[in-house]
Design goal:
Elements lengths: L2 H8 L1 E5 L3 H7 L3 E3 L2 H8 L5 H14 L3 H21 L6 E4 L8 H17 L7 E6 L2 H12 L4 E6 L2 H9 L4 E4 L1 H12 L10 H16 L4 E4 L5 H5 L6 E4 L1 H9 L10 H7 L8 H10 L1 H33 L1
Parallel strand pairs: 1-2, 1-8, 2-3, 3-4, 4-5, 5-6, 6-7, 7-8
Helix pairs in contact: 3-15, 4-5, 4-15, 5-6, 5-15, 6-7, 8-10, 9-10, 10-13
Length: 323
């Protein structure tokens, strides 16, 4: 049995891509998208018709160019998500604009807009996770959205305090970024690699998983942003793992053993003591974590940059459509 099939026995495997063909190839349970992935996919010839359909929708909804572009992007995210749901049995994660990361009310409004568009496409909200950056404002938006029956995936999560606050907010799922934590520590130490058994990204997800299981939180943990297959297999047993097509291919090509690494019984014995955070304590703890602070800010900037690139692509497509 190959490593991918072994991993699926312990963990829900999620495809980390916007390329529908790649998702169908590896038969994951769920799939995740973000502005970076959608920008890449939207530039592929095979999705030109999807982009044009979203542009046509945006032109019907918007009055000025900014309105047209915003409506088109919302529709594009939902149309990609709908197509992805045609080839997977589970859920798709759709991201809120990174520029709303510090605006609770605007995040709620955007999430409800995306869910409404999914409903118009005949997609039940149970099959959609709204991705929101794990800022204090984003976590509070997710708290309210969960109360309204809209399930959330809190992304750009690097620090333990973010994970604690998300669990207290009863969010459905969190996405700690293994690879970006690894990148930061590798650069900080001035080394080319960190062995998996010492990997701070792997250790971060393990700590969060143990804490959640020890204290009975229902929030699921989905390790994300992997740099190498060994990081993935070191977290076998995590609730979910979202994996790029490149690493899915590598896992499928290997028959090395994938033993269970995380399990509820062991977690309950080694998880941290209960921690409760108000806003001031959350901000203090995040500020004290240089890696978490830097990577959260960098991640928001990166997603915003690719969202702007996607907006430019959409604006160009809208101009072509009028010619």
């Amino acid at each position: 049995m190959n490593q991918l099939d072994q991993l699926k026995r312990h963990t829900v495997v999620v495809a980390d891509t916007g390329d529908i063909a790649s998702i169908a190839q590896y038969a994951p349970q769920d799939a995740t998208t973000n502005p970076s992935l959608l920008y890449k996919a939207a530039g592929m010839d095979e999705y030109a018709e999807l982009v044009q359909g979203a542009v046509a929708f945006g032109r019907r909804q918007g009055k000025g160019q900014d309105d047209v572009v915003a409506a088109t992007i919302d529709k594009l995210f939902v149309d990609f998500g709908t197509k992805i749901l045609d080839v997977i049995p589970g859920r798709v994660s759709t991201e809120v604009d990174a520029r709303l990361s510090f605006d609770t009310d605007a995040t709620i409004k955007k999430a409800e807009r995306l869910i409404a568009l999914y409903a118009q496409a005949g997609i039940d909200r149970e099959r959609v996770l709204i991705k929101i950056a794990s800022t204090w404002e984003g976590i509070q938006a997710a708290r309210e959205l969960e109360r309204r029956g809209i399930h959330c995936n809190l992304t750009l999560l690097f620090s333990f305090c973010q994970a604690v606050a998300c669990a207290e907010a009863n969010v459905t799922l969190i996405s700690p970024f293994v690879g970006r934590i690894y990148d930061w520590h590798k650069k900080d130490r001035g080394v080319d690699d960190i062995p998996v058994e010492e990997d701070p990204g792997v250790a971060s997800v393990t700590r969060i998983y143990d804490y959640y299981r020890r204290h009975g939180y229902t929030t699921q943990v989905m390790g994300a942003s992997f740099r190498k297959a060994g990081q993935v297999t070191a977290l076998a047993g995590c609730d979910l793992l979202t994996i790029s097509p490149e690493l899915l291919s590598e896992l499928r090509a290997s028959t090395a053993d994938v033993p269970l690494r995380l399990d509820p019984e062991t977690a309950r014995e080694r998880g941290d003591d209960k921690l409760t955070l108000d806003e001031a304590q959350f901000r203090w703890e995040l500020n004290a974590d240089a890696m978490g602070t830097e990577k959260l800010a960098q991640g928001i900037r990166s997603f915003d940059s690719d969202a702007r690139k996607l907006a430019a692509l959409v604006a160009k497509a809208a101009q072509v459509a009028t010619v």
